[in-house]
Amino acid sequence: MRDQSLVFGEWLSIFHFCAWAAQRFVFCKAERLKMGGDDSGMESDDFDWNSEDDREIENFQSSSRLSVPNGDAVTGSGEASSSPGSSNSKVLDHFVAMGFSQEMVSKVIQEYGEENEAKILEELLSYSALESSPQPQQQIEPDPSSSEYAGSSWDDLSDADISSSSDEYGKVVSENVVTLRSLVKMGYKQNEALVALERLGPNSSLEELVDFIYAAQKAKAEDTLLPPEEKLQYNDYKSNKRRFYELEVLGRKKPRGCEKKIICEDDEEALHLPNPMIGFGVPTESDFITHRSLPDDAVGPPYFYYENVALAPKGVWQTISRFLYDVQPEFVDSKYFCAAARKRGYIHNLPIENRFPLLPLPPRTIHEAFPLTRKWWPSWDPRTKLNCLQTCIGSARLTDRIRKAIENYDGDPPESVQKYVLDQCRKWNLVWVGRNKVAPLECDEVETLLGFPRNHTRGGGISRTDRYKSLGNSFQVDTVAYHLSVLKEMYPNGINLLSLFSGIGGAEVALHRLGIPLKNVVSVEKSEVNRNIVRSWWEQTNQKGNLIDMEDVQQLDGERLEQLISTCGGFDLIVGGSPCNNLAGSNRVSRDGLEGKESSLFFDYFRILDLVKNLTTKYR
DNA sequence: AAAAACATGAGGGGCACG
DNA sequence: CGTGCCCCTCATGTTTTT
Predict the structure, then answer these.
(1) Count of structural domains, chain A
(2) Which nucleotides of B are covered by protein (CB under 7 A)?
(3) Residue A126: how many CB atoms within 10 A of its CB?
(4) Where is the SAM-dependent MTase DRM-type domain (predicted)?
(5) Residue A237 and residue A252: Cα distance in Å, rounded?
(6) Beta carbons of A18 and A157 less than 8 angstroms apart
(7) Which among A150, A343, A408, A514 is least surrounded, fewest beta carbons within 10 Å?
(8) Does the nearest atom of strand C lie within 7 Å of A587's Cβ?
(9) How far apart are CA A68 and CA A147, in angstroms?
């Protein structure tokens, strides 16, 4: 049972969210006018996002689909108290205009005074939540993790600095509140509404928000969460293609006799990881898929290529896939390309015929990759592949402990010691470098395993710790290059690349090693050392093209993109592996899923991709 | 001040077995 | 089908060392 204080707490967090969103989203009317001006059929597809232009804010009010009836009444929290005499009816009118009952508003104003609109809003929201929530029992989460899930991220949000008291701030708050209220009135949970509004922006239409929530529900919901009639609405979704994918690509056998379970047959089903994890095929295995059909919306140009960890929390890949035009992910383990495992999912709209690998093929066992370890490798260590290369390495003291644990014995150590050593070796990816001596991989060894040139991340003031971190967050170049290889014959004169979350430039290196000329590369990467690494590589490899680097994907708005596109002549490929922090299993602290602090930047990948797609089709 | 070392499991998939 | 066991995971926050 959910008690009232909990509900109220959630509404509190909603308010904090609104404040946070007000800061985060600055509205972009100019873009909408520009794009919608020629009426080129982009009504509900044009997402409006950040812009820092003030005049755009001015225009926001009139353009909003979910308009505030009386904008003038919406004042910043600081202003309301300045003229108490006349503001009583004004404040009351304002909240009534937002859709609250006059009775309720005056009651709350009586109780709390009218000088603190924020407080009034809180109260109104909590009251109306209790009153109008259509199916309160439905908000009981059978899955206890779900509420925690959202809870932690909202805590983050409420920590956000909400000192802004500008006018647009007030508008944004009320705008969001109205939208949220509408959604809750429609029967959606606050959490879902919040997430949707956060992702799509306050300017988005109700339809878009509802659509988003559907997607999220589909990804998350268990059978028991939703009443059957609501779920039936999802069932027209892709059943044929999904089935084809499961049968043909994932090698999945559809068990007979489950026709009864119509409801959960397709969408509710968890995405199955292929075994072996070879996607549409890898150079070293005979199993291949040579054809797939893409959803119409996904067909390029431009081509896009998205990457993230395969073992994300449940529902994440379904959501990602749904945003990326329903293209099904290709799950590939890089252990088929090199000596280290790296299970990743890739969503792209590239052709998959006539792929070819980078040559020479890298060694695919530890012994081949590190011949010197063979001499010291004990017979009781059966590993032939390394585990996933992560962002941290084992410490020197750990390897010392292991040495001491072993050297007490003449022959093979007892099984318990073997177990301990093996566990540690697997956990930290240690290799044998001497008698009773294990060691973590060196930076340059990691570089080689991942397909980068040696010393790619070396120098320029980067610490060893940070090198491991940057490398651990990177692509495996051979794997990505194999997928991108189909571009070579399509673009003999080179490509224009938009590289988001570039990191140390895995995509750039892959294309370069494929022999695909890079004409213009726009590289967006937050970390300065990483940008330096890419810049340095760019100069060392005598690139003929032009490298433009930027810091923040969130600053890449429609205006900026249009500029870039007009100077570059359009992007042929948009690559991005968005942050996995909140998805990766190694994260004990904040594995919050796609809504996590960093991983939610996926939605910026989608936003930018969608913008480029629209701009590309528009100008061609 | 910066770099390195350390402490901190949950969550799922795969598999064998009954 | 369920259950138990094995295994793996693009990490974060704090403390210690350099």
Answers:
(1) 3
(2) 2-15
(3) 21
(4) 290-619
(5) 19
(6) no
(7) A408
(8) yes
(9) 31
